[in-house]
Amino acid sequence: MDKTIASVADAVADIQDGATIMIGGFGGSGAPIELIHALIDKRPRDLTVINNNAGNGHVGIAAMIEQDMARKMVCSFPRSADPRAFTERYLEGRIELELVPQGTLAERIRAGGAGIPAFYTPTSFGTDLAKGKPVEEFEGRSYVQERWLKADFAIIKAQLGDPMGNLTYRMAGRNFNPLMAMAATRTIAQVSQIVAPGEIDPEQVVTPGIFVNGVVQVANPQQEEFLNRQEAVYP
């Protein structure tokens, strides 16, 4: 099955209003900027966005927020070097925030991909983040119940991909991307290069193609940090 998609616009064409979307990356590392910007061009509304942070500057996720596309952010770091897009809307009551400790965020996404509805963690016990959540004691220690995270779509970034959707990642760009690929109903990956079937050593595959629905090549992907140093604004 050839999962190659011709363009980033085609890759995000099925994302509609009200969708829940996981977006890969840790800051700019592993962030699929071209897919995010293609989504901004399409302009769906009322999105729930799951990411490590709430955007930086005026590109990527921050640009999505500036275009009033996001109804809710689920993230660990709503404040970054330049968080004004999210901060202004949050203080005005125009966007919701679900704050999740980073390890818990990763595990909730992993649980979603593994089919585990809930798990217990000591993280957040006794804090505001634990209010309203079930608490159990195990071996004399209190643990908070956390629920899985799943999404309608995941848009992620990888280094190499093949037409069957097998993916590898470049160094720290791996971060949340493999977990999100497993936790979404439909996963779209932008890759720096699409290679022929068999060119990726099976032992080097990080995300098997069974978790990927589409692959689009972006030969020279942009970096969020570089765009912000240029004071870029999108669109």
Structure explained in plain terms:
With 235 residues, this protein is α/β, with parallel strands linked by helices. The chain has one domain (8-117, 148-205): Glutaconate Coenzyme A-transferase (3-Layer(aba) Sandwich), CATH 3.40.1080. It has seven helices and eleven strands. The strands form two sheets. Strands 1, 2, 3, 4, 8, 9, 10 and 11 form an eight-stranded mixed beta sheet that branches. Helix 4 (84-91) links the parallel strand 3 and strand 4. Helix 2 packs parallel to helix 3, helix 3 (60-66) packs parallel to helix 4 and helix 5 crosses helix 6 (177-183). The radius of gyration is 18 Å and the shape is globular. The chain starts with 7 loop residues before the first helix and ends in a 6-residue tail after the last helix.
Quick recap:
With 235 residues, the chain is of the alpha/beta class. The protein has 7 helices and 11 strands. The protein has a single domain (8-117, 148-205), classed as Glutaconate Coenzyme A-transferase, CATH 3.40.1080.10.
